[in-house]
Amino acid sequence: MKMKYRSKKGAERASLVAIHAILIIISVIWLIPFLLMIILSFRGETVGTSADYIFPKQWSFNNYIKLFTETKFLRWYGNTLLVSVAVTIFQTIIILATSYALSRLRFKMRKPLMNVMLVLGMFPGFLSMTAVYFVLKEINLTQNLLGLILVYSASSAMQYYICKGFFDTISKSLDEAARIDGASRHTVFIKIILPLAKPIIIYTVLSAFIAPWGEYMFSSFIMLGDPDQFTVAVGMKSWLDNSSLMSDGYFAVFCAAAVVVSIPITALFIWLQRYYVEGITGGSVKG
Amino acid sequence: MADVTLTHIYKVYPNGTKAVKDFNMQIQDKEFIVFVGPSGCGKSTTLRMIAGLEDISAGELKIGDLIVNDMEPKDRDIAMVFQNYALYPHMTVYENIAFGLRLRKLPKDEIHRKVVEAANILGITEYLNKKPKEMSGGQRQRVALGRAIVREPKVMLLDEPLSNLDAKLRTQMRAEIGKLHSKLQTTFIYVTHDQVEAMTMGTRIVVMKDGLVQQIDTPKNLYNYPGNKFVAGFIGTPQMNFFEGTLLKKGDDVQIKFEYTDAEITVPYSMLYKAKPSYLDGNSVVYIGLRPEDISLACDDVKNNKAVVKVVVSHKEDLGSETLVYGDINPNGDGYVESSTRIIIKDNSGRELKAGDVVEAALNINRVHLFDKKTEESVLPRVPEYNYLDCEISKGKIKFLGAEIRLPASVNTEDLKGELLLPTDAVTPDGDLQAEVVSCEEINGVYLLSLTLGGKRLYAVLPEPVDAKTVGIGIDFKKITVTACGENKIVPMPEVNAFPCKFVKKKICERVEVNGKTKKKKSVQFGLTVAGAFFGVADETAQKIFTALGIKNAYAANLRLECGIDRIAVAESGIAAEAVQTLDYGKEKYLKCKVGDSFIYVKTEAEYNGNICLLPDFEHVGIVEIEREIKII
């Protein structure tokens, strides 16, 4: 009887082909809306509330010119950038410090504290929205960018988990060696741990930046009624809600705004993607 | 100068596990101390406590003259080398070595000079600009050593520094660390689980097991005079052979019978003088330990030796220069399983042997080790604790070994024939019983005097050597025990008095005059209540109690106050006691008092009667927590 078998190489190739085919299909589905948005932003003729055809009859930069001259977009963009950068700085510092403390120090209630923080972090943030709003109102921080920064940075410590996991992989004997060498805890953190934690710092910076950049719910609530204080997400949503504006062909301007909004994030990602991947898989550090 | 003194050091984890129990040691300046033991024995924990990386639960750690219990690692002036090197991966070798100096803000050119000097000593000059990951394990460990020596610490701590290296490199680094020690002239404390490392490097070795120190001694003494079965088995490869057997004294000979086999040998009693007589009764089973190198298969040895057993050879390992012969003294044993009849012999005779051969092996009984089967402690100690003698008491005189001494009034008893348990340190060289000196050897700071009295052996432990051929000996009667018909007729006086006590806090309200006005000043005084009496303690003592027991438990814990019989005196106030009897030992007098239900002994000059007060010398007392047996002070 003749044995039937496929060569190992053949089998491997077949599975590779299958995997790639699936990946290509998924990425096409993912990329189509994005590409459509870019194409629409360059359309010369007016667009209704939906695109009836894909490729424009006339390519032009008019939508972008309109965006920066006729609307408050530039102001919103500035607001968002300010909030995001401020939150990134606060959040990174808080998360790194919390994670290091939880990874290295042993104190009473450490485990319960970690668990409570983890569980609290699982609740959606908007549950507390009304309460937060009233608190902010009491201290006069509604319709104020400072209020937004405060809200975004406030719960940073709860995101200690990934970062702590990374610190845990750094051998404790490094801390001990440095402490014997004459370093205080603070010096150990700054001079030994941080230089080794580059990937996780970049991961923290990126995620801290992205979250407020695209956040809608809290900002729409806190900034309600003052268009000068809108972030891009709130501002652009206000266009979509305005049907007369939309029928006026503003959808193309909206798409142009979306492209401009995505530029910094895309640039950041491309620049830092190497570290980003390394960061979340937890780079192993040899002692 | 940096002596390291560990006094009653404990490490107790919150869940109650005792990682280190009552560690006592005095490490002299420039010594090379090795902590050795199987994993989990507490050796690394002890080292880390010295380094300051672990808190000390109880006890006192001194480096030099400073108590460093609560000192940060960086202030202890120590350096440590870790098993995984712990080099800073993002720094070059130069920066790694210079890190500690930079933190101490030394001038740049001095740092440079020191780093280059250290690199020169360790032969890593050419790697100074490399990162640790570009280097091999051996080179990395050199960098770690460099980082430690560049600071010129008082004490160097090394935590299994060679475990991650391959065998050849390990041998090489071993020699280099030894060289480094003699060059730097600092105290080294080295932790390892490898007994070869311990034996080759240490000036003294601390053998540990389950958090307890088993023995502290020089490598040679550990090998020749192991204090218990664990040390005997741990030190030396291949392992010591352990047989089970019984010893029976027959006149001037001792018959040794091995268990689980018919083998038996007879040896002269003179070889086993130091053995406790109770084990020579032919019933008590002991472990008989003999190293493979103390058993010979050579024909001459077998001919000239009476202690010969028959061995069935099972297999052998040829090591080139010598052969390890595995066999069994039980004809049916298989020689592979570790049993109490399996025998390993280091054979240099070059005899050709094959499996199944029956050969005669000569046992060198001069080098035999005997251990109690239950406690596993040596019953053939290097320094015997007691002399076991027959005695006869009549008319206030005690007769033993043909000599006769008058008993002091306080230990007099009825006439009897019994056994005298005479501690070796109760034999003093200032009496008038003439004994012949056989030998006088120094063992760990004391002198063991072997004497002959009435043709029998008598041992004495003295603090000073004796040169003369004969010496007049006396006996410290407060340490002796006499038993007759299974009853203790004379019991030794305890050397330490124990009182139950509690730790208490007392609020004190004082009236202080400030600028003419009387003000109330409140303060807190910590102290101990001992049998109803309150004694204030120094803040330092209170601090130690709090550290060992925790703030909450300190007041609830049952404590025991221990003080030597010469560290307590009759005073005007103190612990209420009732004087019962004055014990007269000739040169010294002691007062026996009753406190509660127990008896307390006090050294005294005068005689007392009735109710008195006792005052312990709080500079020299011990405080023990009863429940966990932790010595706090």
Q: What attributes does this structure have?
A:
heterodimer; A: 287 residues; mainly alpha; MetI-like fold; globular; disordered C terminus; B: 633 residues; alpha+beta; Rossmann fold; OB fold (Dihydrolipoamide Acetyltransferase, E2P); 6-stranded mixed β-sheet; 6-stranded antiparallel β-sheet; 41 strands; 16% helix
Distance between the termini of chain A: 57 Å
The domain count of chain A comes to 1
Estimated helix fraction of chain B: 10-25%
Quaternary: heterodimer
CATH secondary-structure class of the largest domain in chain B = Alpha Beta
Write a short abstract of this structure.
The complex is a heterodimer of chains A (287) and B (633). Chain A has 13 helices and no strands. Chain A has 287 residues and is mostly helical.
Description:
The complex is a heterodimer of chains A (287) and B (633). Chain A is an all-alpha fold. Chain A has one domain: MetI-like (MetI-like fold), CATH 1.10.3720.10. Chain A has helices spanning 8-41, 62-70, 73-104, 110-122, 129-138, 145-154, 161-169, 172-181, 185-196, 198-214, 217-222, 232-241, 243-280. Chain A is globular. Mean pLDDT of chain A is 85; it is low at 280-287. Chain B folds into 4 domains: 4-233, Rossmann fold (3-Layer(aba) Sandwich), CATH 3.40.50.300; 237-372, Nucleic acid-binding proteins (OB fold (Dihydrolipoamide Acetyltransferase, E2P)); 386-490, no CATH class; 496-631, Nucleic acid-binding proteins (OB fold (Dihydrolipoamide Acetyltransferase, E2P), Beta Barrel). Chain B has 10 helices and 41 strands. Chain B has a 6-stranded mixed beta sheet with strand order 6-7-8-3-9-10, with helices on both faces. In chain B, helix 5 links the parallel strand 7 and strand 8 (187-192). The chains are: A mainly alpha (287), B alpha+beta (633). Chain A binds chain B through residues 171, 173-174, 176-184, 187, 191-192, 195-196, 285-287, and chain B through 51-53, 72-74, 78-80, 82-90, 99-100, 103-104, 133, 147, 151.
